[in-house]
Structure formats: structure tokens, C-alpha cells
Amino acid sequence: MTGFGAAEGKVAGGRLRIEIRTVNHRYFNSQFKLPFDLATLDGELRERLRVLLARGHVAVLARWIEPPPATGDVTVDVERARAVLGALRRLKKSLRLKGDPDLAFVARLPDVMAVSSDGVSVTWPDVEPIVARAAADVRAMREREGRALVADLGARLAALEAGAKAIEARAPERLTSELARLRKNVATLAAGTTVDPQRLAVEIALLADRVDISEELVRFRTHLTACREALRSDAAVGKQLGFLAQELLRETNTMGSKANDAGITQTVIAMKGELERFREQLENLE
Fold first, then answer.
1. Contact present, 75 and 114 (Cβ < 8 Å)
2. How confident is the model at residue 209 (pLDDT cuts 50, 70, 90)?
3. What is the pLDDT of residue 71?
4. Architecture of domain 141-282 in this structure
5. Are strands 28-33 and 56-66 parallel, antiparallel or unpaired?
6. Residues of CATH 1.20.120 domain(s) within the chain?
7. Report field, pTM of the whole predicted structure over 0.85
8. Residue among 26, 285, 286, 281 at smallest CA distance from 159
9. 114 has which bridge partners?
């Protein structure tokens, strides 16, 4: 799901800003861009975000708005500076150049002047409150998107339920027409020959069993109920709904294969279209 959050606060005498962006992804996938001082917190940050944001591609950018106070000493290698200066004077003489090297030029040369730093000590408790605030903004944005997705998915489920009702209403008429077709075909094939009524009754019973979709309709409605219950939950339900969508598609395909009826086939095609859109939206749901 899409989300953005940012927060900042004082850390180690400086001011740190953390930005978190999330986009759709089937699993939790993190990417961090952290200052060197925070590199050791990578593992704790990842585990914390995995709890707060169970699904999605999560990109984290942390930067110092105000760097922490520098610590350490400035050292000067006088012998190195003397050697460099002597080399420059010899170069000047050899090339017959004018002017003298100034102090700023010599100081900028490698190994002449250096600042030794003890580094900035940053611990997870220093950073965690900032991460929590940024993640809270992300979750709030994702929840707003989630409510819109739930409404859309609910409308898809309503369309699927309407399709199931249409199939159920059509099923008895379809069964009657199948039985009439069977009797007509038997009469045509018999061509006046007496047909065993008991044998015909057995064939009719077998046909009725083969084309009966009552079990599929019961399971289909059960899956619809499970989907609605999941959408009312506050937990992450994307994977659960993905499984239920597969089961709904399985029952829909079975009803279509048993139907042998143009009206039911058209309804099944429409239901499969709704299921495809339902499954596409699930990619955006945590």
C-alpha cells in the first residue's frame, strides 16, 4: 500500500530527519539510505518496521538536518609540509615560474592537515521515537487508502453474490430442460422401441447428480462470508483474501463446467471478471 511519513528530532546533539515511503509489494521488502553514524542500527530498524508495516516495499531515508558537534583533534604534519614546500620551490626554479605557494594551498594537500574524529555515538533508543512517528504517519495514510479499498472489494463481493443468486435461480430451470432433452434424445434413439422406465430413471438420476451445483453454491457463499469477515478485521488480511479468491474462482469454474447452459455460462464469465479485479485490488491491500 502507498504511504509517506516523516519525522525529525534531536539525536546526539544534532537534529535527525527520517522519511519513510511505501509502495505496493506482495511481501515486506526494505531499502535504507542511512548516514554512516546510523549504519549499525540497520537490523533494529528493519525489525521494527517489519512489525509496524507488515507488507509493502519500504524505503527509508535518514539525514542530519543539523549534524552532531564534531569531536576530535586537528593534527599537522610539519615535516610533510616542509617536504612539500621544498618540492614546490624546486619545481618553481626548474620551470622558472613566478610566485610562491601560499599557506592555504599547502594545508589542502593530502596528509598535511587532518581532523581525527571519535565519531558520533547513536543508539537505537535515540532514533526509535523518530522512526515511530514517521511510521505512524505512513500507517495513517495506508489506513485511509485501505478504507477505500475495502469499500471497492465489498462492492466486488456484492456483485459475486448477485451472480451466485442468478445461477441458483436459473439452476432448476436448467435441470428441467436437461431432463427434457434427455427424454427426447432417448425417444429419438429408441425409435418406437420400448424403453425400460427403471433404466431411464437411473440415467436421469445420474444426470441430475452430474449437473447439480448446490454444493458449489454452498461453498461459494461460505467463502464470500469469510471474505467479508476478513475485511472487517483490523489485522493484515491480504494473504488470507488471496487464498479465498482462489477458492471462489475454483467454485466458479466448477459451476461453469457443470452448467451446460448459455445463461449460466454468461453469468460465470461476468463473475470471473469480477474475481480478476478483486484479486488485482488485493495486491494493494495489506
1. yes
2. low
3. 61
4. Up-down Bundle (1.20)
5. parallel
6. 141-282
7. no
8. 281
9. 75
> Taken in order 134, 138, 144, 150, is the CA torsion positive or negative?
negative
Provide the 8-state DSSP code for 272.
Answer: H
Cell numbers given for 155:
462492492
| pLDDT bucket at 131, cuts 50 / 70 / 90 | very high
Determine the Cα–Cα distance for residues 121 and 154; give it in Å rounded to an integer: 51
Radius of gyration from C-alpha coordinates of the chain? 37
Report the half-sphere exposure of 7 (CA within 13 A, side-chain side).
16
Do residues 274 and 163 touch, judged by C-beta distance below 8 A?
A: yes
> Phi/psi at 260 (nearest 5 deg)?
55, 45
Q: How far apart are CA 275 and CA 75, in angstroms?
A: 70
Q: What are the grid coordinates assigned to 37, written together?
A: 553514524
Whose CA is closest to 52, among 108, 3, 121? 3
What are the φ/ψ torsions at residue 7 (nearest 5 degrees)? -155, 160
Could you tell me whether strands 3-11 and 113-115 are parallel, antiparallel, or unpaired per DSSP bridges? Answer: unpaired
27-67: per-residue pLDDT in tens? 889 999 998 888 889 999 999 999 888 788 999 999 999 98
- Per-residue exposure over 6-31, b if at least 16 CB sit within 10 Å of its own CB, e if not: ebbeebbebebbbbbbbeeeeebebe
Grid coordinates given for 231 = 475485511
- AA identity, residue 272: K
Dist. CA 89–CA 101, nearest whole Å: 8
